[in-house]
Amino acid sequence: MRSAQVTGDDAPGRAHGPSVQESSLWAWTTQDWAVNAGYTDSRLVLLWYRSAQWAIAHGGFPGRVYGAVYRLLCSLFIGVELPPEAVIGPRLRLFHPHAIVVNPAVRMGADCVLRQNVTIGNVTRRDGTEKGVASLGDGVELGAGCVVVGDVHVGDHARIGALALVLESVPARGVAVGNPARVVRIDAGR
Ligand SMILES: CC(C)(COP(=O)(O)OP(=O)(O)OC[C@H]1O[C@@H](n2cnc3c(N)ncnc32)[C@H](O)[C@@H]1OP(=O)(O)O)[C@@H](O)C(=O)NCCC(=O)NCCS
């Protein structure tokens, strides 16, 4: 469970349709809309996040200013840090978009679910060096309050329990719970 090395189908950030450079504003900004039906707050946060990504890719200097303003205001007033630099596949679902922190270097596949108080990021050692940033495959579900940090990979369709602290990689379809998180089950394929 230790290695963060990822190959083949489990590689994060692999192609999930057109990139932000290739997409129209409408297609890019609405890619998460349908799967967040019933969660207007989540829809609006994701619309804002995707529009910042699109503006940075297409809008030159004004676009970069828009991206910086999004980042500041979304953090200050909504308490969500979803940086435009983070590579997140389509159909991201946010259940209760509060106190979510995602490192800019995070790569996440399609169809993932983030709940309130989730952190995905880095670990800084005492000497100031960094361990690296976590990545997620497709269809990964993170429970409320869970923290996934360091150079670890959470495999496709893995489910991480509420309040888990993930310090080691989790295999595809694994169910991991606790602090530190342990894999308690590998679910059958679906
Ligand atoms: C981890 C999770 C996905 C597993 O769900 P599941 O597949 O139905 O698995 P089970 O409920 O059978 O749990 C498997 C084992 O892990 C334990 N477990 C489940 N969730 C846990 C958690 N968050 N922390 C610690 N242990 C947990 C169960 O007690 C069970 O232990 P046992 O086998 O000794 O009885 C789910 O429990 C979870 O935490 N989901 C996130 C829910 C959430 O954040 N909701 C917020 C709503 S606002």
Automatic annotation (TrEMBL):
InterPro entries the record matches: Hexapep, Trimer_LpxA-like_sf
Superkingdom of origin: Bacteria
Organism: Modestobacter muralis
Name of this chain's protein: Serine acetyltransferase
Taxonomic placement: Bacteria, Bacillati, Actinomycetota, Actinomycetes, Geodermatophilales
PANTHER family the UniProt entry points to: SERINE ACETYLTRANSFERASE
Keyword field contains NADP: no
GO molecular function terms noted in the UniProt entry: transferase activity
Keywords in alphabetical order: Transferase
Presence of keyword Transferase: yes
